[in-house]
Specification:
disordered C terminus, 0% strand, 78% helix, MetI-like fold, elongated, mainly alpha, 261 residues
């Protein structure tokens, strides 16, 4: 069946192009100085001329984001399994996890710097902490949504707890797990950038802070463009994997199971 036009991302592209054209026209019409608001063409020039600097700072940000995200996925699913199968942990640990989300993550960043110094550990831990909560919440919701009749039948046929988990709970939870991953990857980017803002000598967050201090607004916006493209690419990879791993089902709006903190 041919793909319908409405299924293609035409309108977002049209709106973005229109926005850029209006932006360019306003800057040109009112003669806005580049230090205040550079035109999209000036940002494109900065991207072309400073691509080597942008690439140098992109790589550490990308590595820390992926590492923090991966830890949040493993840790979040692991905690969700424990909470699902242990009533003690569900009553004792789960509320604590929820309550800790009221603490602003930006306020924790300086504390991590004191404890772990600047660099890999503090940035990775902050990315992990920010991205951890959506993974736990979505995974717990997914593990608790199942067909009770199917579970009773599996137990009647002497299915072990491990077999029931692999054959019933985990497949049913996959849409929610991927929904949590989509939220977590965006939050992991935020966590790394916050860490680079606070104390770092490399990364896109550091470059944005540095260019702001130098009043190099075109480079600052170019860094934001690269950062946005990186986040969009990571989100797209997860969405691509989701379609191939859980092609048999989907949960519309499952991402709403956990709101970003």
């Amino acid at each position: 069946m041919p793909t319908k036009l409405k299924d293609l991302p035409v309108w977002p592209v049209v709106f973005m192009l229109g926005f850029l054209l209006v932006w360019e026209a306003v800057v040109d019409l009112y003669k806005v100085r580049p230090i205040i608001l550079p035109a999209p063409s000036q940002v494109a020039v900065a991207l072309a001329q400073r691509w080597d600097v942008l690439l140098t700072h992109l790589l550490p940000t990308l590595w820390l984001t992926v590492l923090g995200f991966a830890l949040s996925v493993v840790g979040g699913i692991g905690v969700a399994i424990l909470v699902t199968y242990s009533e003690v942990l569900r009553k004792g640990l789960y509320p604590i996890i929820v309550v800790t989300q009221v603490v602003p993550k930006v306020s924790i960043a300086p504390l991590f710097i004191v404890w772990f110094d600047t660099g890999l550990v503090s940035s990775t831990l902050l990315a992990f902490l920010v991205a951890f909560f959506p993974m736990v919440i979505n995974a717990v919701v997914g593990f608790h949504i199942h067909d009770e009749d199917l579970l009773r039948m599996a137990r009647a046929y002497m299915g072990s707890r491990w077999q029931i988990f692999l054959k019933i709970r985990l497949p049913n939870a996959m849409p929610y797990i991927f929904a949590g991953m989509k939220i977590s990857i965006t939050l992991a980017v935020i966590g790394v950038i916050v860490a680079e803002f606070v104390a770092s000598q490399e990364g896109l967050g550091y470059l944005i802070k540095l260019s702001g201090g130098l009043f190099d607004t075109p480079l600052m916006l170019a860094s934001i463009v690269v950062l946005s493209a990186m986040g969009l690419a990571l989100y797209g990879i997860i969405a691509w994997a989701e379609k191939r791993v859980i092609y048999w089902q989907s949960v519309p709006g499952a991402e709403a199971a956990a709101a970003p903190a």
